[in-house]
Design a protein that fits this description.
The complex is a heterodimer. Chain A is built from 8 helices and 11 strands. Chain A is an alpha+beta fold. Chain A starts with a helix and ends with a strand. Chain B has one domain. Chain B is 70% helix and 2% strand. A two-stranded antiparallel sheet of chain B has the order 1-2. The longest helix of chain B is centred in the C-terminal third of the chain and has 31 residues. Classes of the chains: A alpha+beta, B mainly alpha. Chains A and B meet through helix 1 of A and helix 4 and helix 5 of B.
Chain lengths: 304, 208
């Protein structure tokens, strides 16, 4: 009996020490990790818009976030958008509330410094403060509007959707006509080697260059990926099969309305991504139109 | 095994050669077979194991008199898991690019037989300094083995080295497939054994 007690105490102490060490290191690194993640996300974002080391982003490129919220209280569910607006010559945050049919409900100025708006907890607190405690707010997603000289050049959607195992987080870049510029999987927990292939070029690049109409009806096929399409999708991997520009344009034309070719062994993951991206783009194109209409009706000048 | 009588240099050399984790002790064969398709994989995993081995060996040799003998294996596992988590968190925070490449491997290290075995056989019976050098030797031996396997498999399977195209064609694609891991390890072991036999014979002849 004494032995059991001794063993229990020894194990408890070991676990406590190990837990303290791990917890300490976690606290010490949490901030740096967030920073490096934010940096990687920014890199991915610029990469999707076509900017990189060889082709830096222009200085007048402006990336404005629109944070979407779901509001619920006794009267029902509404959506809210935290946007940057121009008030005279001043740029400030404003929270616009829209009902389910797209009608304008209310607008509230929100005072929050721009660098704090990027942190979810600070942002939630600021919005909650403005709306009062009677309304329950839930952060839904983040859309980024890229503009140059007050002309919108692209949109980047950050979204998550259910995968085969847990949620898949993705970043989708759209051109001003809502056609897909590129897609990047930012986080997932699919099986390595099977569903994990969704982050490979041959799969994710299939979403490139598809118009809104095509995306709305996008489905998955189990047919094998044709060789010419594979060489087009993975130019870095098949350097010996370089495709010249004329051929690339022809291939782009040929496959722009084709189905997404599923990853063999991971049809469910492929379907999840396709459905997720379709839903993301479809919902965004609807929401941004509502937001634009509301803002022009109410003479709200967006800062993007 | 009683307290070691080897010098520090001998400990490192024995970890690298005559007690090499992969080719002599045949421990941690899963990563040796499964992950050594390229030099880079082998190198990154080897470096990570080196650190975990050294830190865990030092920790266990420091607290070895306080470990209850009936729960020593759970304590080893806990120690290894703590160090793996610490390294994982530090990499994620400060070297995000390397973490992206090797993050998934780092977490696997908890289950590597070689580390637990070295703690049980060596670190829990020896002082801090020999345990440190034993950890370094074993870690380097593992690193050496993994890089060698990765190099052979990458050159033969993909015709490249560290990602740079070396031969311009793929001599034996078979070598990047998992099954070839066994063959490569087997051949390497044979070479190791052969070299050792020859070395010992010559040593004997010289003595005679």
């Amino acid at each position: 009996m004494r032995e059991i007690v001794k063993i229990t105490i020894a194990l408890t102490i070991s676990c406590l020490v190990a837990g303290t060490v791990m917890g300490g290191v976690f606290m010490f690194t949490a901030k740096a990790k967030l920073q490096s993640e934010a940096m990687l996300r920014q890199q991915t974002l610029l990469g999707l818009l076509g900017y990189g080391d060889n082709h830096p982003a222009p200085a007048d490129l402006k990336l404005s976030h629109v944070y979407r919220y779901i509001l619920s209280d006794d009267t029902g569910i509404r959506s809210g958008y935290l946007v940057l607006v121009l008030n005279g010559s001043q740029i400030q945050h404003e929270f616009l509330i829209v009902d389910r049919d797209g009608g304008f409900v209310n607008r509230h100025p929100v005072t929050i410094p721009p660098e704090k708006a990027a942190t979810e907890s600070d942002r939630n607190a600021a919005i909650q403060h403005v709306l009062g405690q009677a309304v329950t707010i839930r952060y839904a997603d983040d859309m980024i509007i890229a503009s140059q000289n007050d002309i919108r050049t692209a949109y980047v959607l950050l979204g998550k959707f259910p995968g085969f195992k847990t949620f898949i987080h993705a970043m989708v870049a759209l051109n001003s006509g809502f056609g897909i510029l590129g897609m990047e999987i930012t986080a997932h927990e699919e099986d390595p080697g099977l569903g994990g292939e969704i982050e490979k070029d041959f799969f994710k690049n299939q979403f490139r260059d598809r118009s809104l109409e095509v995306v709305k009806g996008l489905t998955v096929t189990k047919d094998p990926l044709p060789d010419d399409y594979r060489f087009y999708l993975e130019p870095q991997k098949w350097e010996d099969r370089q495709i010249d520009e004329a051929d690339a344009a022809a291939l782009k034309e040929k496959y722009q309305a084709a189905d997404i070719h599923a990853i063999s062994g991971a049809t469910i993951s492929s379907r999840c991504v396709t459905d997720g991206v379709r839903q993301l783009v479809k919902n965004f194109s609807y929401r941004i139109q509502i937001l634009d209409r509301v803002m022009s009706e109410k003479q709200i000048h967006a800062a993007f | 095994m009683p307290k070691t009588t080897k010098s520090n240099t001998q400990l490192v050399v024995s970890g690298l050669l005559n007690e090499n984790p992969i080719f002599r002790l045949a421990l941690s064969m899963c990563p040796a077979v499964g992950l050594t398709t390229t030099v880079m994989n082998g190198l990154l995993l080897g470096v990570a194991v080196l650190f975990v081995q050294v830190f865990s060996s030092c920790t266990i040799s420091l607290i070895r008199n306080h470990i209850h003998p009936r729960i020593r294996i759970p304590t080893y596992t806990l120690t290894i898991a703590t160090w793996v988590t610490v390294i994982d968190l530090l990499l994620a925070a400060f070297v995000p690019v390397a973490y992206k490449a090797m993050g998934i491997f780092v977490r696997l290290i908890v289950a590597f037989a070689i580390i637990t075995m070295r703690l049980e056989v060596f670190a829990c019976k020896n002082d801090l300094v020999p345990s440190f050098w034993d950890g370094v030797g074993m870690g380097l031996g593992f690193l050496f083995g993994m890089t060698l396997l990765g190099g052979v498999r990458e050159i033969l399977g993909m015709g490249s080295f560290l990602g740079y195209d070396l031969l311009g064609f793929r001599p034996l694609l078979f070598f990047v497939l998992p099954a070839a891991g066994f063959f490569t390890v087997g051949f390497m072991m044979a070479i190791f054994n052969y070299v050792e036999t020859v070395y010992n014979r010559r040593k004997k002849e010289r003595m005679a």
